[in-house]
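Let us work through a complete example step by step.
Step 1: write down the sequence.
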Amino acid sequence: MSFEQNSPADSVRGFGFADIHQAKIAAENCKSCPLWKRATQTVFGEGPVPAQLMLVGEQPGHHEDVSGRPFVGPAGKLLDSALDKAGVDRASVYVTNAVKHFKWEPLGKRRLHKRPSAREIEACRPWLLSELELVKPRLVICMGATAVTSLLGKEVRITANRGKFLESNFAPAILVTVHPSAILRAQDDKTRSSEFERFVEDLREAASFLRA
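Step 2: predict the structure and record it as C-alpha cells.
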C-alpha cells in the first residue's frame, strides 16, 4: 500500500472550537457566502467524535436541506448500501460535506442541484477544517470533485488519483473516489451496477487501511 504526497497550501485553518456541538451551533449562523440566503438551513456533519474514518461529500441536496442531516436522500441510501457491503458500519463514521448549504436553481417545481463555485468552497473550508480538527480521523475519503478541491486543490483529479492513499496536512491519509450521486446518474443499469461495485471496492480498501 503506497502513499503519494499531494497536499495544497493550507491557507485557511479551522476556527478552533472546543467541541463539535459548539462548531455546529456556530455554523448555523454562517453568512460567509450567499448560499445561506436560499438554503433552508445549514447541514453540518454528524457521527462519532473522534472517528477513525471521515467521509466528505460535496454539498447537501434537497433531502438534506429539508432534514438538516447529511446523506439522507437517494445518494445517502446508496452510500449506506455500499458501506454495508464493504463491511463498514455507518454509525462508526463521521459524515459531512465540503459545503454546508444547498446550492440550487429552480426547474419547474423542482430544485436543481448546482455545483458550488471556488469562492463558495473556500468560504466553507474553515468549517470542514474545524470538523477535521475535532474528529481527528485516521483516514478521510473525499467523494466527488468539490470535496477533492477543498482538501487537495483543484489540480487533483479523481480519474488520476482514485483509489490512491494520498498524504495531507489534515489526516494521515486521504482516499479519493466518486460521489454516490455520480453512480445514480449512470446512463444504464449495467454501468450503474459496475460503478457501484467499484465504489464498494474503494470503501473496502479504506476498511483494510484502518485495520492495518
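Step 3: interpret the result. The CA atoms of residues 62 and 111 lie 7 Å apart.
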